[in-house]
Structures are given as structure tokens and as C-alpha cells.
Amino acid sequence: MRRVYIICEGQTEENFIKEVFAPYFNPQIVAIQPLLVGKKGGALSYDRVKNFILNLAKNDTATYITTMFDYYALDTNFPGHNQLNTSWDIYKKVKYLEEKFKDDINSNLPNTLNDRFIPYIQPHEFESLLFSDINEIVKADPGWNKKAALISSLSKIVNEYPNPEEINNSPSTSPSHRLVKILNLPKYRKVLHGTAIAKNIGIENIRQKCYHFDEWCSSPLFQ
């Protein structure tokens, strides 16, 4: 059985991995454990992340390591960030960052460990996945359910993009910003609502809508 640590950006991602993502895979093949950099995650400077991963890899040489970090607001000190071309689409950007991230970590590990770190960066952020099914978004809180205006606003967003992972065109229009603006009575709360919505949507449905997330699920890490 393969053991895989997923280094998460924050508590929402940690809960998502624990309650939704890990149970999707065969526990006889892969044991998945989320970890935070620090007690609550957040403030993910690249130096902090790098030191955490290197220490983990060197202290547990039998495990595999991946990440679940948002592209949105990613520390600009991540390898390759200052080389991103504004003309690239989100998929080219995250794949380039993942490649440079992997190369930098591996350059600091023994060759025998070079195949054990496979990073994942979510375009644009965790909430992108929730737009895979807007009906499940509005069911997550009694205050939102059966409100036609909410469905209309969310549908308009979804229909503007080829898939949920491409929802974003400025710092103020990230998926989470959009949810906070639309779902305000009560207010959308990432930790409270995020995992519940994802659980109701289901990993299989998310994979059908979110291209890069599906690639991650298909990687050798989890097979």
C-alpha cells in the first residue's frame, strides 16, 4: 500500500482531503493523509513550504508527497512564478509552476527520492471545484436553498467559462470572491460550507468538469 501526504494550503483543503478526496480512492492501494504547514496553514511563503517538504521527505523516505495549493495569491517566490507569461492560459501557468516546483524540491533530495514528490496547484483556487454543480452550492445552507436569484447569478458565471477551473479574470473575481458576493444571507464561509458542498457534488462529478483536477486524480500517486 502506498502512503501519500498531501500538503494543504489551509483547513478547508485539509477537511476536503480527509472527508471527500481520500475516501474516493481504494484504501487498500493508497493511504492519503492531509498535512498543514503549521497548525492552521496559511502564510505559505515558498521558503516555509520548501523546508517543510524537504524535512518530511528526508524523515519518511517511504512516503509520497503532493500538494494542494491555490494558484490564486500563490507566493511569487515559488519557482518559475516571475517567468509566467500573461498570454498563457491558466493550465499552462500551473503546469509550468508545478514543473519548476518539482525540479527545485528534487534538486535538494537524493536521487532515490526524486520520484516521490509530485506537486499539484489548483486553478484558480479550491472554490473553482464547487462551481462543478451550482445546485449543490445553494443546497449547502437553508438560507440559500430554492432561491432563483442565486441560481441565476451562479449560472451566469458558469456559462461565461469553458469549465469551472477557468473562473477568474482579476483579483476581485476569484471563485471565492464571487461566492462571498452572491451568498451573503448567510455569508459563504469557506471552512463551514466548502467541504460540505464538495461532498455533495462528489469527486466523480468534479473530475468530469475540472480538467486539471482530473489529471491529478489520474496520477500514479493514487493508482
Q: How does this structure look, described?
A:
With 223 residues, this protein is an alpha/beta fold. Helix content is 46%, strand content 10%. It has ten helices and four strands. The chain has helices spanning 11-24, 46-59, 90-106, 126-130, 134-139, 148-159, 175-182, 190-201, 203-209, 211-217, and strands at residues 2-8, 30-36, 64-70, 121-122. It has a four-stranded parallel sheet with strand order 2-1-3-4. Helix 1 runs parallel beside helix 8 and helix 9 (203-209) packs across helix 10. The longest helix is centred in the middle third of the chain and has 17 residues, at 90-106. The chain is globular and about 55 Å long. It starts with a strand and ends in a 6-residue tail after the last helix.
Compose a concise summary of this entry.
46% of the residues lie in helices and 10% in strands.
Rounded average pLDDT: 93
Can you give the helix content as a percent range? 40-55%
DSSP helical segment count: 10
pLDDT under 50 segments (min length 5)?
none
Residues in β-strands, percent: 5-15%
- Subunit arrangement of the protein: single chain
The strand order across the widest sheet is: 2-1-3-4
What is the end-to-end distance?
10 Å
- Sheet with most strands: 4 strands, parallel
Kindly provide the radius of gyration, computed on alpha-carbon positions and rounded to a whole number of angstroms: 17 Å
